[in-house]
Here is the input.
Amino acid sequence: MLIYVLINVVIAVIGIIAVLYLLFRLFAWKQGDARFVIEARRRNPFELKKITQDTAVFETNVPFQNMGKQLGTIMDFYPRTLLPHEQYDKCVIHSQLANTAAERDDNYWESVIYYPGEGGTLRVTIALVSKNNTIREDLKTFPDMPIDLVYQVVSRSEWYIHKARITLKASEVQHALELN
Amino acid sequence: MADLELVPVRTRILTDKDNIVDVIEEYAKHLVGPDDLICSAESVVAITQHRYTRPEELTPSWQARLMRRFVPGEGSMASLYGMQAAMELEGEWKMLFGFIAGFLAKLIGKNGVWYQLCRQASLTDDVTGTMPPFDKCIVYGPADPDGVAEKIKKRMGCYGACVADVNDLKRSAVLGHSRGLNPKEIAKILINNPFGNASQKTPIVIIKNYAQCIKETKSTKTAK
Here is the structure.
């Protein structure tokens, strides 16, 4: 008899734990989390900010927003240019990313908390340095160059690293050169 | 009658390679007199003691995953890693039972019990809580703040020293102090955050003429 009572107690305890766990999962799902969206399609066209004999500097602004339900922190943000020398080897490429709300020139991203619905703007700067000191000539054959914007987020959930992609297009480079 | 004067002292960025007592001597020796009180920001004391970690170094426990969901979003404990960091020092089970006790106490109208039982829950600053390059770190509360304050006082030959936790939201607390000081009184003086925000790099504040003002206040009270 006692054994049946014990079994019933164990089953009841397991059942209560299972129900509490399900309720918790439901609560967590309803509570949600931060969700950052990098609005790569809404970026400005790249502008030529400076040109010298050997260097051309292009710049664009990219908006982003926390579309989630919770506060989220962007701990780090950096650009990664993807142009292998097999494809193009006339320039050395330097990239920099800054938060326009907290300008700095050291390529350091200072961690920022964003409330739900809040966002900001990234400034991506690409400097192309000619290996032969002939930047205008070299840029005539510049191809489309993908740039990954890599960011690390931490919020209620575990930290993660995501990427968004923009492209410095050959047509944008040519157009900017024509204007200057 | 002597006036209290709060003098923030600018320093370089301090790291775990620094000793806070040496730093105070280096930057503030010429400014401090025998009647003065030296206050040091708690997060900077903690950094010089290497009391910080990074989210990447932590493995969240199930207790942290559970509890962070019930903390309001603005607090350091709402973050999975802020909560886990505090648990690393306090212990997962202590934090869990403290949390349950705090919840029960709240039902009868008593707030802040969890933070009283688990000091690291209130002292730990999540990422963004400190200036670069520590903005990507979770900074704990300082170890032995009373001892640190005593060492500062002894080295500087001043009236007293304290380690304080002050922010721009008009929250001020003295975590540790040298003997004979009244922490509540000092917290009131620091309420407007003379340490400034992180980027101002002023982790030391000297309260000039503190001893004289205390004496004068006491003698006024006695006369009444």
Observations:
- The mean pLDDT of chain B is 91.
- The first helix of chain B runs from residue 20 to 28.
- The first strand of chain B starts at residue 5 and ends at 9.
